[in-house]
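tool_call: predict_structure(chain=1)
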Amino acid sequence: MIFNWLALLSLTVAVTLGLDWLRLPASRFLGPLVAGVILALLKRRPTLSPWLYPVAQGLIGLLVASSVTPSTLGILSRSWPIMVLGTLWSIAASIGLGLALYRLKVLPGSAAVWGLSPGAAGVMTIMSSDYGADSRIVAFTQYLRVLVVSLVAVGVARLALTPLDAVKVVVLFPPLIWPDWLVGLGALLGGLGITKLLGLPGGLILSPLILGIVAENVIGANVAPPPGIMIMAYAIMGWKVGLTFDRDIVIRALKILPAIILAILLLIGACGLFAVGMVQWFGFDPLTAYLASSPGGLDAVTIIASASGADLPLVMAMQSSRLLLVIITAPYLARWLSRHKVTL
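tool_result:
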């Protein structure tokens, strides 16, 4: 068992650093996931403590909550019709494509909804297992979406002749601000406690998220966990998904790869059409419109927007509002699909 853990940790660091060197998005999750898949295929699975996964989910909820700040809500209040239309457009496009993949038997059951949801890849992967979907297929589809969307966004920004080489220095463990830290810890523990008490599906993320939003906008606390803690949380989530893979699921994922890539490109195209409308009808500059309507990859899109001169507050507000709505609506859509066995 110790050997398995040492192998997992070593492989995780190696793969993550390799992905960082390639500048691929979501490397903090993808590295552990790939490492977990490799060890699972080698039948060297270490055992994760059962309490680690709920804590990691709660931390993700707090991280999402920290993006819903008063300034973001202010921008949302001023531009809410465009935000709502853009969010509903991207969600409708993802649902339509997901149902098409479901009908064509590319993706099974509710995995079609979870897999193509336009945002919150890690959250969708985690919550999908709570609703009986195959989280391995969801993870494969979601992180392929993040990768393709991010690469296309980088290409669009480079075509706009904008600099993307700015280096952002991240302090893994900044000095603790005790009042904020205690409020964040209270939101985390309170959310996990509420979920256990009420047995809420998906509540391990949603309950801390809701309490975190209240803390951010009512109390004024910053509930964002330190980057070093989030790296650990991402690793736990990646391992949880990756270690469940086997040879059959890998072969299956490779078989559906072309269809998934086509669906992702169609989703990008649909969101691009809305960006054209933002430019033509509302006067937004093209790069801001594209990045604001881009279907997911919040971290990558934010970095691109900040380095390219796009309207960062607007991009953040629209991406954050969609992320929040996706997290709230995806469970109901998945449950509806499973209950009614939708066919088109």
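agent: The CA atoms of residues 138 and 313 lie 30 Å apart. Proceeding to next step.
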